[in-house]
């Protein structure tokens, strides 16, 4: 009797060498489903044992094409590559590999120490960058505030100059208005008034009732 439900197979830790010669240990799970019961019985005697051996060799092949950084950071790509390659093999057994999930990747101790130092250095670098960015933004804010203050001060001076000029213009306009309102007689009286010396001579001749010719 063949179980047609989806099943899984655990692949224990396998040692593999990456493209850049780093030795790592990986374990993963294979999810599969029988799609042809007769082929699954007639083409393979022990599917679980055969699948484990095929999975181990396929894993070494996939990891050997990837550098260590990609193995650690691109797990989804590794899962997809393993699923495709395993499915190519199990298809002739009437079995479909539906999913492959890498559970744990254990790099060598030296690589772990290097990764720890690298992460520490990266955190230090990011902290320094964040601090520098904060100082930069503070300097920009201060400079912008100084600029705005200078602009406002200049605008105040300009408005003050405009108001003073407008006040002087209004005063001159009032003077011209008063000047235009003076009539011709007022202007003539102002311009024909006798001098003080002529007035005094006129007064003396007016009070004297005789002249030197009478004597």
Please, could you describe this protein's structure?
The chain has helices at about 35-40, 45-65, 70-75, 75-90, 110-180, 185-190, 195-205; strands at about 5-15, 25-35, 95-105. It has about 220 residues and is an alpha+beta fold. It has a domain at about 5-105: Band 7 domain (Tetrahydropterin Synthase, Chain A). It has a three-stranded antiparallel beta sheet with strand order 1-2-3. The chain is elongated and about 130 Å long. The mean pLDDT is about 80.
Summarize the entry for a quick read.
Helices cover 65% and strands 16% of the residues. The chain is α+β, with helices and mostly antiparallel strands and 215 residues long. It has a three-stranded antiparallel β-sheet.
Strand content: 15-25%
* SSE order: EEHHHHEHHH
For the sheet with most strands, the description reads: 3 strands, antiparallel
* Unreliably modeled segments: none
| CATH architecture annotation of the domain at 7-107 | 2-Layer Sandwich
User: Given the structure, what is the number of helices?
Assistant: 7
Termini gap = 179 Å
The named CATH superfamily of the domain at 7-107: Band 7 domain
